[in-house]
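Entry type: protein chain
Record version: 2
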Amino acid sequence: MDPNIIYIIIGVSALVVGIIAGKFIFAKNTRNQIAEAEAQAQVIIKEAEIRAETIRKEKELEAKEKFVQMKGEHDKEALERNRKMIEGENRIRQKEQSINQKENNIDRQIKENEAIKENLNRQIELVNIKRTELEKHQEEHIRRLEKIAGLTAEEAKVQLVESLKHEAQTAALGIQQEIIDEAKQKANKEARKIIIQTIQRIAAEQAIENAITVFNLESDEIKGQIIGREGRNIRAIEAATGVDLIVDDTPEAIILSSYDPLRREIARLSLQRLVADGRIHPARIEEIVEKTRKQLEDQIAEIGERTVIELGIHGLHKDLVRVVGKMRFRSSYGQNLLMHSREVANLCGVMAAELGLNPKLAKRAGLLHDIGKVPDEETELSHALLGAKLAEKYGENPAVVNAIGAHHDEMEMQYVISPIVQACDAISGARPGARREIMQQYLQRIKDLENLALAYQGVEKAYAIQAGRELRVIVEAEKVTDSDSDRLSFEIAQKIQNEMTFPGQIKVTVIREKRAVNVAR
């Protein structure tokens, strides 16, 4: 602060103090006190002037010290700036030296690259000359090869490509066969295990039914009563039952012949009652046959109920229960239909349990899969589609309906139990002794098997042996190579698998034999 201002402030303060003191003294009305106050004011003013001078000198000293300090800091900063400028100049000089050195190196490298480029150009010219000479030699060599082989380069290339293509196809066929075999082994390993365990756990009685029933008699005298006067009794029985009665020289026996087991059973029971009653005449025959037919209807319902109870199947419609009972008197390829359906149901239940599926649903589908074989009326639908239609009509589960309709691949499989029912149906029908094949169908299957192989080019003869379980194909050695034999065997096996229906498996053996014959004279 300016010292003059300080002096003024001190003076004003002293004056104010004097005035105050004066007023105080004036209040006391004493002149002495006023004088003393003025004297004290003068003293205070002098002291204030002295103190102000002292403060001024101190401030001047502080200002000088601060100036010196600021000057020192300024000099120090100037020195630091000079040092940094010197260091920057040094770095610039070093960079200039480095740049100059790099420029020298670049110039030297450019000169070296020019020399290398000239050398490479000379080498390229030499290579072009050698290439031209080599092409000439190669053309000459190709002309000589064409002259020797009698083929042009393009013709040789085509033959080479065809040869490689043929070899590649043969190799690919072999690899394909190996992949298919390996996949089948891995994929069918667990399936075989489950199927074998299922077959072993479900034992089924196998008995092929015939189209005849032998009715035993106590004596041959009863034959005459059954025949009746001029054969009227036997004609009445045949008319009422639809069964042929064969009375021959067989002692104490009459043969009942019919392809319908239900009719044969009605005829057998009716004859049994007539013989036991002793009254055999056309009116009595018609009465007994009608009673037997009604009794058999009740027996059919009882058989159906007993079957579903034994299998643990609940909630089956009463009409479907009656159809199940009628299976007892139906057969398929000589195999009793009810026994077959019960076995399929048990197989399906076990297999579904092994696979973690619903065994009750699978067992239900297995029991009903052949209900289309016992229709109440004639229809043009196959038994699988008719069975699916009946099951749907009586409110069966969609999975059961699909399994029934798809077990012969006549409907697309949409549920997991469908292939299980198909597999179990095949297992039950393929058991040794379960079914018999009609001779005409067997002969036709053998003939179709041989004709399928004869349709391939190069096949000379084809023989189906071992009841159609093996096909031996004899090919012409001039037209079929060894590699072609492998391919032919694979293709025939695949075609048989895709186009034919057969039990078990068929082994395809292709035989290629080369014979060289000469005559010595």
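Comment: The radius of gyration is 61 Å.
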